[in-house]
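Q: Hi! First time doing this. I have a protein sequence and I read that you can turn it into a structure. Is that right? Here it is:
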Amino acid sequence: MAFLIDGKKISAEIKDELKEKVAALNAEGKYPCLAVILVGNDPASQVYVNNKKKACAYIGIKSLSYELSEDVSEEELLNLVRELNDNPECNGILVQLPLPKHIDEQKVIKTISPDKDVDGFHPESVGRLSIGTRGFKSCTPAGIIELLKRSNIETDGKECVIIGRSNIVGKPMGMLMLRENSTVTICHSHTANLKEVCKRADILIVAIGKREMIDESYVKPGATVIDVGMHRKEDGHLCGDVLFESVCKVAGAITPVPGGVGPMTIAMLMNNIVGAFYED
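A: Yes, that's right. Below is the predicted 3D structure, encoded as structure tokens:
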């Protein structure tokens, strides 16, 4: 049976560490602050935003909340982002995605100052990540790095296969694993012999967006398997892109869904906000 990588436990440790850092910053007269913008009333987005607010409250980060109607104009939203860019009390801006169809998400992301882009989605943030200079790291990939490090899973010289090439997970994940001296392969829908490529991996990171697609036939015995997927089954239970019951029989370590990668995303968002006050 594979070792279970406990994202809940590790994220709680990170939040406690950040709580101490924020207390020290407050003693110096520094007050981390996150502005969260929610457009519309999508239930899933509301849950995500509430979870971020709770994390801020626990750690001691001030949060500003802006809830805009579904029919808000793109220009109104962009003007709010520009105001927050200029607000010295706010050092992080998060616009909850997805946005309504009449709003250009990329235009909104590009309007956020790269120095306040705590999601790490701005093209300049991505550029900084690619060349290894100071900047905000994409939260989910950064969380996966912490899962590996805090679980004592060796990355140096290891073969890492990432399934999925999204801008949010796959591509930044590849760059971060390169930083950790892994040999990286990124697979996608056009990859030939996907199963054979995956079976080479010492570390297999699955962000393909297909429910329980990856079973034990894709996994090298003893490999570490990180499941980024999140799906709800017909019975209401959550599952990932990995068929957990099958893969845990051959993997050396595996993240569960829920309780694996998910909690780390918010923890690393908080880490980005606090990290803005520190030099690398």
